[in-house]
Amino acid sequence: MTPQELSKVTILFSGDSGDGIQLTGSEFSHTAALYGNDLSTFPDFPAEIRAPIGTVAGVSGFRLNFGSIEIHTPGGHVDVLVVMNAAALKKNIEDLRPNGLIIANSSGFDKRNLKLAGYDESATPLDDLRDSHRILELDVTKLTRESLKESSLGTKERDRSKNMFVLGFLYWIYGRSLERTTQFLTEKFAKRPEIAQANIAVLKAGYHYGETTEASLPRYVVKPAPQKPGVYRNISGNQATALGLVAASQKSGLDLFYGSYPITPASDILHELAKHKNFGVKTFQAEDEIAAITAAIGASFGGAMGVTASSGPGIALKGEAIGLAVMLELPLVIVNVQRGGPSTGLPTKTEQADLFQAMYGRNGEAPLPVFAAKSPSDAFDAAFEAAKYAIEYMTPVMLLSDGYIANGSEPWMFPTSGELSAIHPVKANLSEQPYLPYKRNERGVRSWAIPGQKDGEHRIGGLEKEIDTGNVSYDARNHEAMVKIRAERIEKLAESYPPLEMEEGEAEGDVLVIGWGSTYGAVKVAARDLNRDGFAVSHLHLRHLYPLHPELGHVISRFKKVVVPELNNGQLVKILREKYLVDAIPYNKIQGQPLKADEVHEALMNTIRSIVKNEKA
Amino acid sequence: MSETLTAKDFATDQDVRWCPGCGDYAILKQVQTIMPELNIPREDIVFISGIGCSSRFPYYMNTYGMHSIHGRATSIATGLKSARPELSVWIVTGDGDGLSIGGNHLIHLFRRNPDVNVLLFNNEIYGLTKGQYSPTSHEGQVTKSSPMGAIDHPFNPLALAMGADATFVARTADRDVKHQREMLLRSNQHKGSSFLEIYQNCNVFNDGAFEMFTGKDGKPFHTLYVEHGQPLIFANGEKGIVLDGHTPRVVDLKDGINQSDLWIHDEHDPFKAYMLTRMFDDPTAGFPRPFGVLYSVDRPRYEDLLVGQIEHARSIKGEGDLDSLLAGKNTWEVR
């Protein structure tokens, strides 16, 4: 059978948490990236480490969208659904497109599994779908055991490699080489070569099964995507955030001190940074969120680049200390990898509902810059920029990421160190005496004398400061002046932003869609498609949420309608309405899931229709 | 050091704003007095505090300093010391700041053991908020927030420190100038986290709380000065403490008991140190309260271990190379 050529494919790997779904998905992604496809991935796993086996609550998923065209999202409806058991089918069948392909492990549909998934024992969920979908059933468990007949491993360990059978089978369907995964397995199990051998044997068996089985199987070709020439790697958002911080540390000449308390979905930043001690990175696993940030503040006081990261609930605990950093005017980067809230909320799901917390979540008048990353690889630039502003403007900076960016991955044309801009700490000139810690330069920024510097001895603290001297002051007018000075110096920092650029569309038109954060891919695809269809839709994606870009008001005024899609109940839209008195239209999704391009497409079409209707009237 | 500094060089131009007669003045004076003797350049000394009366301390020390937020001086100092191991870092805290809102950070400081000095001013009351009971106020203490007497059982700060594996545990009092000076010097000498509890009189809200230990009538009978290698003797040499198996007992030295039969203080013995911290009940009923260095042991410092891992990583992997970090292990080229 001649393979059919496709421009893009969305696969959802799903099965029990213990089935190795994440590994299967990420290996397929790495192989696709090395082959030259553009891609975007998104893992979706339960909050419980080991939810009951076989139940819907325990289903783990890994979504991959890859293609020979530009890919910006992990896809809308799924083309291929891989299900290791009945629960996985039950949970994800709604996501499969009509006539989509189901690859099912038939041993995961026995009576026991049907019952665990909540089906009747007599149910035949796969058979029920045969009219509307294409179904490939493989007895993965049995085939895996057979291919390991000679192995010395026990049954339990043999069964653990069944995900490799599925992976090998998919490699055959999409005509992919086994090389990368073979090498990965060899390295991963270097200390237990018998496990590596078993996994490789099963991987090959899955591939050969595709070749030799008599059934007429589909095969597809997804050619490499036309990407910008350069050298690429694959990267997740948390990894990119960590590397951005290390890069900023190197370019500023300041040692990175990272204070953190483990929390989903931010912990991988700590794991990544802990690997890079040879860069002088000091990671501090604190006793709680408050200690994590205050230790970072202590390190910054000592002249280091202090950083802390958490997710919403942890950021709430850090609130008082963030206010202290505002008062001290010390560099500090605070990363919030947002998740569904409030309270503990949806720990493993994504949301953008902490924007107000970032903007307003402190006592007193305590403004600080709030930036947002828009995609996994963009988290590198965003983290680097957050650190640069923190250091050069002596201020805490809040960087917003989210669960989708943190765990998602995509190809990244990484920069060389030479391409990154220098970062200049604001050193104190101690030949001028006395040293005044709150004396400001032309940008309103105070200078940074650090312990160990002779003649720089000074005291700072959370009490209100006297202008210039930094001494404690309860003077009424001094307080009002200081509140304004602190606010103005943050406002002023917007003057150094790069110009605003449209992601899609023209500088003026009918509809301007303003996004921020991880909705980037979905909004871009929707705006691009509408543009192609002749609609005057433009897409602007904001990195800087506070202070807003000085040009933003003018840009907004050149459009008839403004639409603001967000994964919350409408937060940026309120800020824009308040600031620009514009009748911006919210589009909100609050399901713990990323935005899809077709959802944005529909929302924008509604707005376009309303304009047409108004103009006719 | 090229110049010789005096206590005056460690005072700032800021007015000291504690209440007249506050015990904090005596502590400030002692700290300023010992500073020149430490032979540490002034710019290498940092005082970190939280919130409370005691926490105003950094403003009056002409060194680097930070008056931070309630309870967090310990964690700020841990970060500072980790970033800059060569600095001499002092933490000034109180019974509310250090044991109540900051209790968690204090015990974690002890287990990590960075080389910092904790001075905990214990006045058994909340002073800055004007007189509520604190976590060291005694049961039944009548305060603004406990008009019928406090029902909270108090912390025993030194036992708490022992429980958290602190490596240096000592007690002194504001009025006991000579002893305080000695304890401050010992705290500084200790490599690791030193915990010095200083009984400090709040003459406004809890006047005379420690009169029994510091006044001339009670002191001989209720205060026991422990010294390494010396027998436990008090009451003007008339009384001592023996160990009867595992049980300490107060004995009268007039009853023909030799000094060599007494409990000889060994500040490196954690079991005995813990027993000393337990001498905390009503002193009129039994034991005197021990002052001095109850416990001192050497254990690796957090910052040394942290820097050690960095050096080790560098010796294996070499100095970090940003370009190879950015590239990672798997790259591909699009032409």
Tell me, what is the CATH class of the domain at 7-215 in chain B? Answer: Alpha Beta
What is the N-to-C succession of helices and strands of chain B?
A: HEEHEHHEHEHEHHEEEEHEHHE
Quaternary class: heterodimer
- For the record, the CATH architecture of the largest domain in chain A stands as 3-Layer(aba) Sandwich
Largest interface: A-B, 69 and 60 residues
Low-confidence stretches of chain A: none
* CATH architecture heading of the domain at 7-215 in chain B: 3-Layer(aba) Sandwich
Major β-sheet of chain A, in short? 7 strands, mixed
Low-confidence segments of chain B, ≥5 residues, pLDDT <50? Answer: none
Q: Spatial order of the strands in the main sheet of chain A? A: 11-10-12-13-15-14-20
What is the highest CATH level, the class of the largest domain in chain A? Alpha Beta
In CATH terms, the superfamily of the largest domain in chain A is: Pyruvate-ferredoxin oxidoreductase, PFOR, domain III
**Class from secondary-structure proportions of chain A:** alpha/beta
* Percent range for β-strand residues of chain A: 15-25%
As a percent range, the share of helical residues of chain B equals 25-40%
E-strand count of chain A? 22
- What Rg of chain A is obtained from the alpha carbons, in whole angstroms? 27 Å
Keywords (chain A): Oxidoreductase
Pfam families (chain A): POR, POR_N
Domain Pyruvate/ketoisovalerate oxidoreductase catalytic (chain A): 18-207
Domain Pyruvate flavodoxin/ferredoxin oxidoreductase pyrimidine binding (chain A): 257-449
Structure report:
The complex is a heterodimer of chains A (617) and B (335). Chain A is α/β, with parallel strands linked by helices. Chain A has 21 helices and 22 strands. Chain A folds into four domains: 218 residues, 3-Layer(aba) Sandwich (Pyruvate-ferredoxin Oxidoreductase, domain 3); 184 residues, Rossmann fold, CATH 3.40.50; 56 residues, no CATH class; 115 residues, Rossmann fold (3-Layer(aba) Sandwich). In chain A, the strands form five sheets. In chain A, strands 11-10-12-13-15-14-20 form a seven-stranded mixed beta sheet, sandwiched between helices. Chain A has a six-stranded mixed beta sheet with strand order 3-4-2-5-6-7, with helices on both faces. In chain A, helix 10 packs parallel to helix 15. The longest helix of chain A has 20 residues. The model of chain A has no long low-confidence stretch (mean pLDDT 95). Chain B has 335 residues and is of the alpha/beta class. In chain B, 29% of the residues lie in helices and 19% in strands. Chain B contains eleven helices and twelve strands. Chain B has an eight-stranded mixed beta sheet, sandwiched between helices. Chain B has a three-stranded antiparallel beta sheet with strand order 8-9-10. In chain B, strand 8 and strand 9 form a beta hairpin. Chain B is globular, with a radius of gyration of 23 Å. At the A-B interface, helix 1, strand 9, helix 10, helix 12 and helix 13 of A face strand 1, strand 2, helix 2, helix 4 and helix 10 of B. Chain A: Keywords: Oxidoreductase. Chain A: GO terms for molecular function: oxidoreductase activity, acting on the aldehyde or oxo group of donors.
